[in-house]
Design brief:
Elements (H helix, E strand, L loop, with lengths): L2 H21 L2 H22 L5 H19 L5 H14 L9 H10 L6 H11 L5 H8 L3 H17 L9 H23 L10 H17 L4 H14 L25 H13 L7 H13 L8 H15 L2 H15 L1 H11 L11 H11 L3 H13 L6 H13 L10
GO biological process, one term: DNA-templated transcription initiation
Organism: Mycolicibacterium porcinum
Protein name: Sigma-70 family RNA polymerase sigma factor
């Protein structure tokens, strides 16, 4: 990803959210920001990147949006005048995107008039700037299906005159689960990219952490919000140790714990304290992340408590992906044969058909058990499977495959 790509990724959500608030139209806002990014590609290489690229993009996008609204003869004149007056009255302060505009957009996308899949796809497109292909890959759907969902959702918001605002307090709670899920999806795509040349997308990790914090500030008594904030902070504390200087993945048991971000761990643990008793699934996930973050070494990881947390997650979600990950934890607690037996119990679940969840876990358990012939087979299946991940993730699987190669007669691999 080029430097300009990174800037566009980081500033896309704030710019779209701000222009949408001004114009009252999601399609106008998205198109205007896209045009602003295209103009930046023409101008910035020659003139240099501005000191505040977000403000530059938002200003240009605002002007493009106004140009489009003026051209729309069907739009009532008074409505256009009101938009124009609002933008001009906003002054220089509005040239800098107001970050809580993104939360406003997330709550708008969480409107109950939209189905859940459309809510998530629309939010990931507008707030995180993920492409349709990236969203389709993350949600295990086709590009065409995701594109149609996004278009229908935007049309529904426009036709039903759904306001682009954070709803009143009495409606916040019913929309919060969607917002939590979207924030976690943004962070997850950053922390474990589903495709492309990089294993980690820093701008999405940063955005997920920031939005989780903003939601806690908006709803300080919401324990699920604190649980999510704990989860992303505790994961993010390890971000800079997850890849080496060349971008290759470093597994958890090989990471240098002295370089983990202790400040983020402390903040995550404080959010975890505030999340006590949270009813959602983020709490148990945060507990697992905390046990890893606070273990003095890989060898001293509390696998027994981790398995208990997975047990609760399985009870809450009946998710085959959770069960597959639990099998790996059981392997570290009870032995790799036990982990493989647990994995056998879930491997044929039809809900896993479009995922690549089982093959890499089975391969890892077989490798650790010393069953290298079988491990090689499953590493190849993982590499050939749908959703094998980013190029660094694939390179890591190839590295493991090579480590399982049989020895030659002279003892060399």
């Amino acid at each position: 990803m080029t430097q300009l790509d990174s800037v566009f990724r980081r500033e896309w959500g704030p710019a779209v959210a701000t222009v949408a608030r001004w114009s009252g139209d999601l399609t106008v806002a998205e198109d205007a920001v896209q045009e602003a990014c295209a103009q930046a590609l023409r101008v910035w290489p020659a003139e240099g990147t501005p000191d505040n690229p977000g403000a530059w993009l938002t200003t240009v996008a605002r002007n493009r949006a106004l140009d489009r609204l003026r051209r729309e003869s069907a739009r009532p004149g008074k409505e256009l005048a009101a938009v124009y007056e609002q933008v001009n009255a906003s002054g220089d302060a509005e040239l800098h995107p107001v970050r809580d505009d993104e939360l406003r957009m997330m709550f708008t996308c969480a409107h109950p008039a939209l189905d859940r899949s459309s809510q998530l796809a629309l939010t990931l497109r507008l707030i995180s700037g993920l492409t349709v292909t990236e969203i389709a890959r993350a949600l295990l759907q086709s590009d065409a299906a995701i594109g149609q969902r996004i278009t229908r959702a935007k049309n529904k918001i426009r036709q039903a005159n759904i306001p682009l605002r954070v709803p009143p307090p009495e409606l916040l709670e019913e929309r919060t689960p969607h917002v939590l899920g979207c924030i976690y999806s943004v962070f997850t795509e950053g922390y474990w990219s589903t495709g492309g040349p990089s294993a980690i997308r820093d701008e999405l990790c940063d955005e997920g952490v920031r939005l989780a914090g903003e939601l806690c500030a908006l709803m300080p008594g919401n324990r699920d919000a604190h649980a999510l904030a704990a989860l992303v902070l505790l994961h993010d504390s390890r971000r800079r140790t997850r890849v080496d200087a060349g971008g290759a993945l470093i597994p958890l048991d090989e990471q240098d714990r002295s370089h983990w971000d202790r400040g983020r761990i402390a903040r995550g643990l404080e959010h975890l304290r505030l999340a006590e008793g949270a009813p959602g699934t983020y709490l148990q996930q945060a507990v697992i992340a905390a046990l890893h973050a606070t273990a003095p070494s890989w060898q001293h990881t509390d696998w027994a408590t981790i398995c208990l947390a997975y047990d609760q997650l399985v009870t809450m979600t009946d998710s085959p992906v959770v069960r597959a990950n639990r099998a790996l934890a059981v392997g570290f607690r009870d032995g790799f044969a036990a982990g493989l037996a647990e994995l056998d119990d879930v491997a044929d679940d039809p809900r896993l058909a479009r995922t690549n969840a089982v093959a890499p876990i089975r391969a890892d358990l077989l490798r650790r058990a010393g069953r290298f012939d079988e491990a090689r087979r499953w590493y190849r299946i993982a590499l050939d499977g749908e959703g094998a991940g980013s190029e660094p993730a694939r390179a890591f699987l190839r590295r493991r495959l090579a480590e399982c190669a049989p020895e030659t007669p002279n003892g060399q691999l």
